[in-house]
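Q: For a teaching session next week I want to show students how multiple molecules come together into a single three-dimensional assembly. I've collected the sequence lines for a complex. Could you give me the predicted structure tokens for the whole thing so I can convert them for display?
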Amino acid sequence: MTTNGYLSSDITDDGPDLSNDCPLPAIPSTGGGARIYLLQDDLDVNGGLYFQSLSVPHPTKVGLSSVVIYYAGIEHFASNAGIWDMAIVLYSNGDYIFVYGPGNTEDGSSSTTGIQDVTATSGLLFLPCDTGGQGLGTSLTNICILGAAGGSPIPTLGQWGFMILVLLLITVGVIKARQPSKEILFAE
Amino acid sequence: MRYYSILLLSICSFTILQGQGLLLPGQSITTNCGISLASIDITSTGTFLGTGDDSGFPITLPFNFTSGG
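A: Of course. Below is the structure for the complete assembly, covering every listed component.
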């Protein structure tokens, strides 16, 4: 984890990538690895970075382990754009949740929030990068990437989709089977 | 039949979209799923890694975390 607001799968990435990658995918200016961009920018972490295994209830599933990575007292470098806290919750099934506190008045105008693969060939922005007005200063509290299979008695959206598809196929089949065949007979 | 076909096509497309890119199959992106910052504030209980500018801190997760891609 890095002070500049991203997580990298490369443990040798010691966090100097201060220029946010935008748009995604993008070859990182320094470092590498698959990345989760909670909010990448040139940030100063004044209150500290914290890490803890913590049982955070998953919004829809039970029986999952989770960890919290917490950024306390952050501000943009050499900026008066406020001080705020933010965190990411990682669940053992691959789901994760970004959590933002109020105070980031720059509001996304020079940052990146999203994910990217290890080869920097696939990327996905959760918020438009380098674009203000994202609600990060006031109203946006969560970005939730949820629904992966595992650890729950509740069917996921994908499983529901599959069940609906099967039901629809059966329904269509029944309707087709009950339709009388229309044959045109010509009298000789 | 036309409406059934449209509905089927929509569901199929949705299912395929969920399985590609960087999301795991079934995953979708939403906002405001009910986790407050106060409920996960670990500044008094968690492992303090450091402060500063342009720094990185290695951590080891207690489970195999796999995201899509």
